[in-house]
Amino acid sequence: MIELRNIEKSYEARSMKTFVLRRITLTINEGEFVTIMGPSGAGKSTLLSILGMLDAAWTGEYRLLGEDIHKLKLRDRAELNKRHIGFVFQQYHLLDNLTVYENLEVPLSYRDIRRSERESMVADVLDRFQIVGKKDLFPSQLSGGQQQLVAVARAVIAKPKIILADEPTGNLHSSQAREIMELFKRLNEEGTTIIQVTHSEANAAFGNKTIHLFDGWLKDARATA
Prior knowledge:
By secondary structure, the protein is of the alpha/beta class. It is 34% helix and 29% strand.
């Protein structure tokens, strides 16, 4: 599903090149639940941004679902992003001026989907995530756990093949964090490939492969389940 070959990311400053990622070669298979771990500054979030095609300033080869991403124009990368990838961030990234219902509808507005079908999809997700009673509330009226639940619901509403999660439970207390991780586990069991960045060993235990980065280098990639 995902193949990386010699991916590198660097910055130029005062005629000095600083590497964030060095020679990352990695394969992620469909249906895996992968955790990326490492100390702060190791390149974890940068790697996730490259996988999600949010960052285009890198070198190497990236193949996703049979497409050579490194050969595609930015517009075509963005189209693949919208079609196949859902994002969950530590800071939720919900739109404060929209209700829960409207936040869930946003990813569907990028697609050629009839209004009646969008309404049906939002209703299904509200029911599945047990947040029907929150649909008319704004993010500021929700707890942190509820906001992250809505963020996950928004990420999966368009049925992406891959979910990328960057410290998805970093702002939650332990019981809320476990609820989100159990939700990821169920989504993975239903066939969604999940790649998460985390410092939490407890969160990593929900996955089946762990990748360790250190100073931008891939130090270890091993099955954990």
